[in-house]
Specification:
Blueprint lengths: L1 H9 L2 H11 L4 E2 H7 L5 H13 L3 E6 L2 E6 L5 H38 L25
Antiparallel strand pairs: 1-3, 2-3
Helix pairs in contact: 1-4, 3-4
Length: about 140
C-alpha cells in the first residue's frame, strides 16, 4: 500500500516540519530548508527530503545543479487524506449528532422550566439604563 510509506515518512517530526515549511511556500531548496530547521544539519535535511520524495509526498525540480522541493498534492497524499477521512468520519458524525442532541435537549429543558422560549441575551445599548440605575455612555 502506497499510504504505508507516506505514513512512515510522516511519523518523523522533522519531516512534518519540512512539509509544513514547504506548504507555506511554493518551493524551497534543501539549503533554504536547512536554514529554517535548526535541530538537524544540512545532511540530515537532505536525508529527510529523500524519504519524503520516495514516499511521494514531495516533488523535486532540478535546475542545473540545484534542486527545488515542493509539496506534491497529487501523489500518495491523496490516499492518506482519503484514508484519514474514512477513519474519522464516523466518529465526527457521531460527535456532531451527540452535540446536536445535547443542544436540543438543553433547549427543551429550559423551555419546560420557564414555560416559554427565551431569546438570546443582547448587548447593552449605549445610553440605556442598567438594572442598577446607571446609564452606559457611548465611547
Amino acid at each position: 500500500m502506497v499510504a504505508d510509506e507516506a505514513f512512515d515518512a510522516l511519523a518523523d517530526p522533522v519531516r512534518r516540519e519540512i512539509l509544513t515549511l514547504l506548504s507555506q511556500r511554493d518551493e524551497c531548496s534543501a539549503g533554504e530548508l536547512s536554514d529554517q530547521i535548526s535541530r538537524v544539519g544540512r545532511t540530515a535535511v537532505s536525508s529527510h527530503l529523500r524519504v519524503l520524495r520516495t514516499a511521494g509526498l514531495i516533488a523535486e525540480r532540478r535546475t542545473g545543479r540545484f534542486r527545488y522541493y515542493s509539496v506534491d498534492p497529487t501523489g500518495p497524499a491523496q490516499e492518506v487524506i482519503q484514508l484519514l477521512i474514512e477513519l474519522f468520519q464516523g466518529s465526527l458524525d457521531a460527535t456532531k449528532a451527540a452535540a446536536e442532541n445535547t443542544a436540543a435537549s438543553t433547549d427543551r429543558v429550559s423551555i419546560a422550566r420557564s414555560g416559554t422560549a427565551t431569546a438570546p441575551a443582547s448587548r447593552p445599548v449605549a445610553g440605556a439604563a442598567h438594572p442598577d440605575g446607571s446609564v452606559r455612555r457611548a465611547m
